[in-house]
Amino acid sequence: MFKKYLVALFVLCGLSSSLMAENIYPISREMGSGTRGAFVDIFDVKKQIGNKKIDATSKKAEVTNSTGVMITTVANSKNAIGYISLGSLNDTVKAVKIDGVTPSVENVNNKSYTVFRPFNLAVSSNNELVNDFLAYIGSNLSKNIIQKAGYIAIYDNEFSSAKPSGKIVVAGSSSITPLMEKLKEGYKLVNPNATIEIQQSDSTTGINSAIEKIADIAMVSREFKDNELKSGLKTQILALDGLAVIVNKENSINSLSKESVKKIFTGEITDWNRVK
Predict the structure, then answer these.
(1) Which residue in 122, 180, 208, 275 has the most C-beta neighbors within 10 A?
(2) Cβ neighbours of residue 225 under 8 Å, at least 6 residues apart?
(3) 2-116+243-274 placed in CATH 3.40.190.10
(4) Equal CATH topology for 2-116+243-274 and 118-241
(5) Closest CA to 62 of 202, 245, 267, 222
(6) By the 8 A CB rule, do 133 and 187 touch?
(7) CATH superfamily placement of domain 118-241
(8) What predicted TM-score, i.e. pTM, was given to this entire model?
């Protein structure tokens, strides 16, 4: 309502409302999101407080609670900018180059695109079914699924399922969830005796669920924190994933420097005319 009032005021004063269209609307993920944690680390969106560096995302940034909401929000707002998993990218938004390099699996592989993070798993259960599923995830059978989904597979082991029965609960990152759904479908083809329940939330919630034994496997789309590594959970890398900085398709911006992205999300740069 306040924004509409300002636009009306500009028009009444004989000023073009297009002046306001240059404002940047940064969109961030919620605290606890692994994607946010990885983004903040990679782009150094931090400030020094005592001996620690903490998340310095601008309080003016709109917060979304999932990858899907992030994409929809940017797609519907001409001046919005956000960030998502490269594997989640679709044609409703535009991914910008970072320091002149296009975000792609090929460029992550050849290390020219440096904006990427691991998709991690944290495991609380040690039973035949969980171990069989983890072996499948690290096998040649899952490699094509991972790569087709737009991620980078790092394993290529031979696999033959022992077909154990039971139920696995997998919880955590909304960025990893779509890939995990595909792996679940693939695993069911080789082991129809298994039931896999996937609970989408965020990385921190997933980790806590695994620590509390509510989930057998946590999906974590960032690096593990020291206290999480000391929790006794077994860890495994699922895949590597590029992060894509996204803007509305009508935005003329095609490339941004890492420094500009940092300044946008800390609130230092607030209009597109200042972007490099």
Answers:
(1) 122
(2) none
(3) yes
(4) yes
(5) 267
(6) yes
(7) Periplasmic binding protein-like II (3.40.190.10)
(8) 0.83
* Separation CA 266–CA 182 (nearest Å): 36
Contact in structure between 114 and 150 (CB atoms under 8 Å): no
- Phi/psi for 264 (5° steps) reads -65, -45
Q: Give the number of other Cβ atoms within 10 Å of residue 162's Cβ.
A: 11
